[in-house]
Structures are given as C-alpha cells and as structure tokens.
C-alpha cells in the first residue's frame, strides 16, 4: 500500500521502539523518512540503510535534540532541503528511564513477582493483563498502523479525536 508515495515523514525518537515502528510503517507506505533520535552511529546507520533497503525509499538521519528549538528548526530545514517538503510529522521523542534492552513493561515483572509471590506467567496473565479484555499487549506496529491510517485520505474526517489503542482496557 503506497498511500504515502512521494511524501516525507519526519519521526522524532525513531531510532528504536514505537518511533522506529512509525518510520517503518510510513516507509512501507512509500514515504521518504527523516529518522531522529539517539543511538550509536553504527546502529543508526544500520537502521537507516535497512529502511532504504527494505522499502525502496530514501531515509536520512538528524540527531537534533528535541529540547533545543534551533536544532529542531535545523532538522526540518534539512528535511526540506533534502526532499523538498515535510508532509507528516510524528512527535514521538521521549525519555524512558530503563535499559535499552529492557522494555518498560518487562521492568515491572520482577518486582511484582517478588511482591506477590508469583511466577512470570502469573504476573503477566493475572496482574498486567487482568483488566485487558484482549489479554494481549498492544504492539508498536499496531500503534504505527493507526498513525499511518490517520495520514490517509480515509481518515480525512477524523479530527480532534482521542483514539485509544489499549485492547479494551479503558472500556472494561
């Protein structure tokens, strides 16, 4: 599906996690990508070239610090000079105080196991997913798919809406 063919997407915080899922979803829909975030230069380059190779689009990288307005302006200017315009901006950058190899939900499991005298599966199923009607965690790819849909013509009349992706948790 090339709904973004010829478009340009800037995704902040896109060197890993949900941001990278956004970048890959938009590239899969035909958009050229501006990656932004932190990471070892070799890892960022590997991510950038993988997007180009996997999807046949162009991808560039900006290390702009989202706490610095001048750097943000330079990133957008870099995108415009490189591609001619910016069509999509996903403001995803954030700081997560966990180890890079430890997802946020995973960090909760050991302490909960100890506090409740449960094993890992019990914590996941009986605590973390207890109020979740689907009994599954939301994936980064599912979040990215909604963002991609919102960039499509089919979503043109969705404005100012809160869309929950939580497996029914808030409705339960």
What this model shows, in words?
This protein folds into 2 domains: about 100 residues, 3-Layer(aba) Sandwich (Rossmann fold); about 35 residues, no CATH class. The radius of gyration is 18 Å and the shape is globular. The chain has about 170 residues and is α/β, with parallel strands linked by helices. α1 packs parallel to α2, α1 crosses α6 and α4 packs across α5. β2, α2 and β3 form a beta-alpha-beta unit. It contains 6 helices and 4 strands, in the order βαβαβαβααα. Helices cover about 45% and strands about 10% of the residues. A 4-stranded parallel β-sheet has the order 3-2-1-4, with helices on both faces.
Structural class: alpha/beta
**Portion of residues within helices:** 40-55%
Span between N and C termini? 34 Å
Mean pLDDT: 90
The rounded Rg comes to: 18 Å
Order of helices and strands: EHEHEHEHHH
Low-confidence stretches: none
Strand arrangement in the largest pleated sheet: 3-2-1-4
Task: Return the CATH topology of the largest domain.
Answer: Rossmann fold
Number of strands: 4
Shape: globular
What profile does the largest beta sheet have? 4 strands, parallel
Summed up:
With 172 residues, the chain is α/β, with parallel strands linked by helices. Helix content is 44%, strand content 9%. It has a four-stranded parallel β-sheet with strand order 3-2-1-4, with helices on both faces.
């Amino acid at each position: 599906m090339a709904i973004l063919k010829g478009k340009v997407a800037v995704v902040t915080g896109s060197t890993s996690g949900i941001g990278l899922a956004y970048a890959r979803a938009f590239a899969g829909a035909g958009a050229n990508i501006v990656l932004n975030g932190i990471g070892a230069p070799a890892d960022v380059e590997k991510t950038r070239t993988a997007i180009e190779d996997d999807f046949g689009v162009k991808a560039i990288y900006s290390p702009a610090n989202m706490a610095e307005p001048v750097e943000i302006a330079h990133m957008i200017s870099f995108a415009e000079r490189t591609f001619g315009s910016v069509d999509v901006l996903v403001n995803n950058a954030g700081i997560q105080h966990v180890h890079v190899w430890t997802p946020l939900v995973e960090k909760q499991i050991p302490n909960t196991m100890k506090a409740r005298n449960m094993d890992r599966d019990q914590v996941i199923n009986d605590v973390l997913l207890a109020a979740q009607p689907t009994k599954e965690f939301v994936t980064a790819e599912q979040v990215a798919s909604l963002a991609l849909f919102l960039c499509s013509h089919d979503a043109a009349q969705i404005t100012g809406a809160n869309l929950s992706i939580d497996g029914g948790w808030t409705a339960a």
